[in-house]
Amino acid sequence: MQPSEHVLKQLMIAGLDGDARAQQQFLQLLSPLLRNYFARRLTRAGLDVEDLVQDTLIAIHTRRMSYDRTRPLTPWVYAIARHKLVDLFRKSRTTVALEDVEHELIATGATDDGLASIDIERLLETISPKQANSIRDTKLHGLSITESAALRGMSEGDVKVSVHRGLKALMAKIKP
Amino acid sequence: MTERTTEALIAQLAADARPVAPSAGVRRLTIGMTIGGLVTLIAVYIMGWRPDLAVATLAMNFWVKMAYTVTICVMGIYWLRQLGRPESEQPRWRWLFVPVLLLALVAIGQAVQAPKGTMPHMVMGASWQICSRNIVMLALPIYLAILWVMRRFAPTNLTAAGAATGLVSGAAAASIYCLHCTETSMLFVLIWYSLGIAIATAVGAILGPRLLNW
């Protein structure tokens, strides 16, 4: 079961307040997310995913000061992960086609206005957590339906329906 | 690397989970700016205060000059804070035109009132050859201090973060340089102070991807 923004944020804030166990749990919950995020993007490059996971965890821990508690946590985490990924591509000069990198950037929202991701997080908090998670996985974090289903312990059909209903609920909220 | 070593790493990191207050970022920036600023202040002290400093602080010129550089510095600090967040958006650089335009208005007003034939002096002053260079050199301690500050932040737009670092250090150095510089023409400030700050910004932008990467 993938942790929600809400849970991660609570742990992060407890960690910032000096709770070592919360910080440990936070990093433990992040590891599979990061592993999955990098594994999807390093398939052809033949680079060490676990190395990158560890590097990112260290960055997340040592640069916690850059997190603003009033903002959503997930975009902060993924921005750090993306920075580490792009940096690795640059350093290793792997033969990643340029359009691939661009695709990564678009997929993970580097070109988005940061505010857009904040708005999305706010909106997602207004619908059911199950629907919100399904949308986060498949529409924001670039997971496939199958991967999301496996992560959440749901059936693929269930994920599909959740995404569909969630999007419909979001539409209803946006429309005046 | 294996998932087991990751677990060990996490335990190690978590053991070192010192509290980080919401104000920690501001505090770190304040400490950095204070230390860098003090070094620059000492350098300006060694160069010598302007001889008429006590009198000069009674005149408007002195404060307009300082207001210009301090405004730019404050804007830069705001952007620096913003760019220290990994998911930050591109800062709105165009706001820099506001202090520049305001100073340009004052400079024009001053130039119109000035007696004929003094124009070259209003532009060149007595120190145009060294003014920008001095500002860039005085920016160095503050620049280094901000690099240190950024080690706990997570800038991902390194060129912009480098530019903001250069901008803040240049503008802060220029503010301190006001204590030494005797120029009173706003046209002079508009050109040579701005040039010094611009050079510091450009150097910062160029070095950003190298010095700020993590």
Topology:
The complex is a heterodimer of chains A (176) and B (214).
Chain A: H1 5-16, H2 20-41, H3 49-62, H4 74-92, H5 98-108, H6 114-124, H7 129-140, H8 145-152, H9 156-174
Helix pairs in contact in A: 1-2, 2-3, 3-4, 7-9, 8-9
Chain B: H1 3-15, H2 24-47, H3 53-56, H4 60-83, H5 97-113, H6 119-124, H7 128-150, H8 158-177, H9 186-211
Helix pairs in contact in B: 2-7, 2-8, 4-8, 5-9, 7-8, 7-9, 8-9
Task: Please provide the ordered H/E string of secondary-structure elements of chain B.
Answer: HHHHHHHHH
Greatest chain-chain contact? A-B, 44 and 34 residues
State the end-to-end distance of chain A.
35 Å
Can you give the mean pLDDT of chain A?
A: 81
How many strand elements of chain A?
A: 0
Q: Mind telling me the C-alpha Rg of chain A?
A: 16 Å
Query: Strand content of the residues of chain A, in percent?
Result: under 5%
Q: How many beta-strand elements of chain B?
A: 0
What is the assembly state of the chains in this entry?
heterodimer
Largest sheet of chain B: none
Task: Please give the share of residues in helix of chain A.
Answer: over 70%
What is the rounded Rg of chain B? Answer: 20 Å
Strand residues, percent of chain B? under 5%
Folded structure, characterized:
The complex is a heterodimer of chains A (176) and B (214). Chain A is an all-alpha fold. Chain A has two domains: 1-113, Rna Polymerase Sigma Factor, Chain: A, CATH 1.10.1740; 126-176, Orthogonal Bundle (Arc Repressor Mutant, subunit A). Chain A has helices at 5-16, 20-41, 49-62, 74-92, 98-108, 114-124, 129-140, 145-152, 156-174. The longest helix of chain A is centred in the N-terminal third of the chain and has 22 residues, at 20-41. Chain A is globular, with a radius of gyration of 16 Å. The mean pLDDT of chain A is 81. Chain B has one domain (24-211). Helix content of chain B is 73%, strand content 0%. In chain B, helix 4 runs antiparallel to helix 8 (158-177) and helix 7 runs parallel beside helix 9. Chain B is an all-alpha fold and 214 residues long.
